Amino acid sequence: MSTALILLFVVLLVVLAFEYINGFHDTANAIATVVSTKVLTPRQALVLAAGMNLIGALTGQAVAKTIHSGIIDDKVIAVTTLTIFCAMLGGIIWNLVTWWFGMPSSSSHALIGGLIGSALASSGGNWSALIWSRAKEKDGHIVMEGIYHKVVIPMISSPLLGILIGFLSMGILFALIRNWRPYWINQIFSKLQIFSAAYMGFGHGLADAQKTMGVIMLTLFASTSAGELDDIPSWLHFLRVPDKSADIPLWIILTCALVMAAGTYAGGWKIIKTLGHKMVRMKPVHGFAAETTAATILAATSHFGMPVSTTHVITTSIMGVGAAKRFNSVKWSLVERIIWAWVLTIPITASLSYAIYKTVAFFK
After folding, report:
1. Residue 163 domain-assigned?
2. Which residues of 214-253 are buried (b: 16+ CB within 10 A; e: fewer)?
3. Taking CA 196 as the corner, what is the angle to CA 50 and CA 158, rounded to the nearest 5 degrees?
4. What average pLDDT does range 177-194 have in this prediction?
5. Could you tell me if residue 188 is inside a domain?
6. Domain membership of residue 244 as a residue range
7. pLDDT of 56-65, one tens digit each?
8. Does residue 39 sit within a domain?
């Protein structure tokens, strides 16, 4: 087996390790509210989230195509397995650090930051190696893609939508149930929250598993283009990806879906405590509103190929619901710490992957 092929397998394992960590790091996104309201036990919630993650991951490819075609400009630099390897390590390190401290940071932005830093390092600091903004024709229409349109704008707008829609949906629910007895409110919404938690699990799988699919496609396309897969045995020909605009093969979809579901089942209890208990005290009606809001935003943005942060969306939805309940019911000091983790994610992961690439290249 050639050295290039061994390196490719190592990189694919690192990518799948990122996917697994993404699963348990972002488990809280799908189940924090349903656990905190005691509608489901933690283990029941994990089974539900893992199953719905799997189904969501098997649905759609728009986000994956943004990751493997809409961030790094391969006309400026040749993406290599080393580029991907360093990008993933930067994202993994940040995910583990934020998980350890119970901070719900974005795995999506960790991945994007890692790709940005690694691409800049491999191009010698050439900023044109990144696709910032460009027009592309699709189905007879002009669509805009690139970091500005697919990352920056959604990064700002999706948390704002989470707060706004969460606040409004909770306000509407309060108006509808204001004359209900508390017993019936809890009985009805404890049942409805099972469906909203399943919807949130689906949205998490739909949004997050696709990102790693895109990275695997980018890795295999880079190896194919470099001729590293020309002499592989016939039984490994499925690894060849000569056209990165092609649909994602079923084996990649299934692998990413299963790895994320396994990671989700492992659980991320530190972050679950932060989202489900420390930020806002919730009842089933609040959990239903937050999960439905977040899952709907994720489904809509995934349709348009925007790699939106699941963490940002569910966290701000919880903030909006909590503010509608009572403004001071939200622990805003904790929110401030969470927002700092969000702001720092892309710069830190970009810096980490840049430094890792330069270090490896120096000793190579």
Report:
1. yes
2. bbbbbbbbbbbbeebbeebeeeeeebebeebeeebbeebb
3. 90
4. 86
5. yes
6. 3-134+143-359
7. 878 877 787 7
8. yes
The torsion of the CA quartet 345, 346, 347, 350, rounded to 10 degrees, works out to: 120
Torsion of the alpha carbons at 186, 290, 298 and 258, rounded to the nearest 10: -60
Give the Cα separation of 171 and 166 in Å (integer): 8
Total domain count for the chain? 1
Structure tokens at 325: 């309940």
For residue 338, being part of any structural domain is answered with: yes
Residues 30-67: tens digit of each pLDDT? 676 777 777 787 778 778 877 887 888 788 777 877 78
Distance CA 154, CA 152 (A): 6
Cβ atoms < 10 Å from Cβ of 93: 17
Average pLDDT over residues 299-312: 82
What backbone phi and psi angles, to 5 degrees, belong to 101?
Answer: -90, 5
Can you give the pTM of this predicted structure? 0.81
Q: What is the mean pLDDT of the chain?
A: 81
The number of beta carbons lying within 10 Å of the beta carbon of residue 364 is 6
